[in-house]
Design a protein that fits this description.
Belongs to the CobH/CbiC family. This protein is α/β, with parallel strands linked by helices. It contains 11 helices and 6 strands. The protein has helices spanning about 15-30, 40-50, 55-60, 65-75, 85-90, 95-100, 110-120, 125-135, 150-165, 180-190, 205-225; strands at about 60-65, 80-85, 105, 145, 170, 195-200. Strands 1-6-5-4-2-3 form a 6-stranded mixed sheet, sandwiched between helices. Strand 4, helix 9 and strand 5 form a beta-alpha-beta unit. The radius of gyration is 17 Å and the shape is globular. The protein starts with 14 loop residues before the first helix and ends with a helix.
Length: about 230
C-alpha cells in the first residue's frame, strides 16, 4: 500500500519539506524499477534507500511474511514499547509520530547495572541490555529495533527460543564485520516472531529509524482508511 496524501502526523511539517520527500520517493521508484517486494513492503525499503541513498537495500532487505501487518497492528494498538539496542535509535525517532500512537522508547545500553553485569560476566552491554528489557517485561509485544549490536540480536533470538519472549516485531539491522551477518541469519531462521532484516554486513541505526518511520506512516494510513 502506498502512503496517501491524507497523512498528517507522519508527513514533513511544511509543504516544501513534503514536496522534497515525495519527489525523492518518486526518483527512488523510477531508478529502482521492478522489484520483488510486495506492495506493503516497498514503502519500508524505499524509505531505507532514502535514508542513505544506497540502492543495495533493494534486495538486501528481507521480510518475514507477517512482518508489515504485525508492525502496523502493534503500532495501532497504542502504547506499544519500542525497545532499542542503542540511544541513537531512540533519538532518531520522531517524538510527535510516536506520541500519536502512545508509544515510548527504551534503551539500557549505558545503565550502570548493565555495564556491571557485562563486566562481571565478560559479555557485552548489548546482551545485558536485552536481558534487562526482558526482566522489566518490555520485550513482550514490543517492537524491537537493533541497528548497532549483533550480540543484542543474538541474545534476543536466544530469549525467543529458550525463554518464550514474543515481541510483536523485530527490526534486526546491526551493522558490522563480527557476527553482524550471522546474527541476522539467526533471526530470519526462526518463525515464531515476525522480523525485518538486512542480509549481510550492512545496516545501522539510521535504517532502523527509517523502517520504523515507514511503519508509522503505514499505520497512520491504515488508521485513516475507510472501515
Amino acid at each position: 500500500m502506498s502512503v496517501p496524501q491524507a497523512n498528517r502526523v507522519t508527513e514533513q511539517l511544511t509543504r516544501a519539506g513534503q514536496a522534497i520527500e515525495h519527489d525523492s520517493f518518486a526518483i527512488i521508484d523510477a531508478e529502482a524499477g521492478p522489484h520483488r517486494y510486495r506492495a506493503e513492503q516497498w514503502p519500508i525499503v524505499r524509505r531505507m534507500i532514502h535514508a542513505n541513498a544506497d540502492f543495495e537495500f533493494n534486495g538486501l532487505t528481507d521480510f518475514h511474511p507477517d512482518a508489515v501487518a504485525a508492525g502496523i497492528a502493534a503500532i495501532r494498538r497504542g502504547g506499544t514499547p519500542v525497545v532499542a539496542d542503542v540511544e541513537m535509535i531512540c533519538s532518531g525517532l520522531s517524538a510527535p509520530r510516536l506520541a500519536h500512537f502512545g508509544m515510548a522508547t527504551h534503551q539500557f545500553i549505558s545503565d550502570a547495572d548493565v555495564i556491571a553485569a557485562a563486566q562481571a560476566e565478560d559479555s557485552t552491554r548489548a546482551v545485558q541490555a536485552m536481558r534487562k528489557a526482558h526482566r522489566l517485561g518490555l520485550l513482550q509485544g514490543a517492537i524491537v529495533g537493533i541497528g548497532n549490536a549483533p550480540t543484542a540480536l543474538i541474545e534476543l533470538v536466544r530469549l525467543i527460543r529458550e525463554e518464550g519472549v514474543r515481541p510483536a516485531l523485530v527490526i534486526g539491522m546491526p551493522v558490522g564485520f563480527v557476527s553482524a551477518a550471522e546474527s541476522k541469519d539467526l533471526m530470519a531462521a526462526q518463525a515464531e516472531v515476525p522480523w525485518i532484516v538486512i542480509r549481510g554486513r550492512k545496516g545501522g541505526s539510521t535504517l532502523v529509524v527509517a523502517a520504523l518511520h515507514a511503519l508509522l506512516a503505514l499505520a497512520e494510513a491504515a488508521e485513516r482508511a475507510p472501515a
